[in-house]
Amino acid sequence: MKVFISVDMEGVSGLTDPEEMRAGGRGYERGCELMTGDANAAIRAAFDAGAERVVVADSHGMGRNLRADLIDERCTLVRGPFRPMRMGEGLDSSFDAALYVGYHARAGVASGVLNHTWMGREIQDVRLNGVVSGEIRIMAGHAGSLGVPVALVTGDRAACQEARDVLGGIETLSVKEGRDRYAAEVVPPARARRLIYDSALRALRDPATWSLLALTAPYTLSVDWNATSIAQSCSLIPSVTLTGPRTTEFTTGDYGEIVGLLGVCASLAGEIGCAGRHYG
After folding, report:
1. pLDDT over 90, % of the chain
2. Which of 173, 162, 172, 151 is nearest to 115 (CA)?
3. Rounded distance between C-alpha atoms, residue 8 and residue 101, angstroms
4. How far is CA 102 from CA 106, 115, 192, in A?
5. What is the Cα–Cα distance from 232 to 126, expressed in whole angstroms?
6. pTM for the complete prediction?
7. What pLDDT, on the 0 to 100 scale, is given for residue 55?
8. What is the DSSP string of the chain?
9. To 10 degrees, what angle do helices 255-276 and 135-145 make?
10. Are 153 and 145 in contact (CB under 8 A)?
């Protein structure tokens, strides 16, 4: 068995503060340790379930968060910025299952801890083939386009509900319940890791619970940005059209181009957002 694990940070046990997500922020270094702890729980379960190879993608921000010196030495780690497939870098059709650890709810979801879609400020909404989608659906669609099912999603309660809405009755594990976007009732990390291990082991031992999200091509990605300047700039990318003052649209038969374009647009949006942030 070959297992791919994508690890985000907002849904990691014990974390609620945006400062804990940002390099240089208060608590960030400890946040990286907690993120690595949750990842290791899933990695250990994968090997105990019989995996011969486990590939782990650092899927938060610039991809430099998981502690390479603390990660389970049996896995291989994909890290670093500007990877073509971002959160899905390293995944291909040879994998048997994907696990999504530390994931969060899409932008605007009530009680979703640190909820957002792809970017914290610049994106208001993303629609994939007409359906409002967060990172769970986007990345499950990427795995599905490669024929790889999702076996587990961990994160806050809102993220787990979103995963079930998208993927049906797959295994999920909530490690915190949002009280607001930046506040939650959390399961202490030591116990959360035991629960992540148990859930991942149970899921990987029962392929009948895995879910393959097979979206129908062509794939249309529509993004509502928070600024007209971002939409206007993104529309200069070939095949991206401006469909409203703050909305861009892109259609392709290759799902990899959806993920790649999101990454390119996010980089561009980040630059524009930084330049205009003093406007509020």
Report:
1. 95
2. 162
3. 6
4. 13, 12, 11
5. 16
6. 0.96
7. 99
8. -EEEEEE-STTSTT---GGGGSTTSTTHHHHHHHHHHHHHHHHHHHHHTT-SEEEEEE-STTS--S-TTTS-TTSEEE--S--TTGGGTT--TT-SEEEEEEE-PPTT-TT-TT--BSBSSSEEEEEETTEE--HHHHHHHHHHHTT--EEEEEEEHHHHHHHHHHHSS-EEEEEEEEEETTEEEE--HHHHHHHHHHHHHHHHT-GGG-B---PPSSEEEEEEES-HHHHHHHTTSTT-EEEETTEEEEEES-HHHHHHHHHHHHHHHHHHHHHHGGG-
9. 150
10. no
pLDDT surpasses 50 at 58: yes
User: What is the rounded distance in angstroms from the CA atom of residue 202 to the CA atom of residue 220?
Assistant: 35
How long, in residues, is the chain?
280
Q: Whose CA is closest to 124, among 112, 109, 136, 113? A: 109
The residue type found at 116 is H
pLDDT tens for 184-225 read: 999 999 999 999 999 999 999 999 999 999 999 999 999 999
Cα angle vertex 231, ends 227, 237, to 5°? 155
Active-site residue numbers? 116
Please write the tens of the pLDDT for every residue from 121-172: 999 999 999 999 999 999 999 999 999 999 999 999 999 999 999 999 999 9
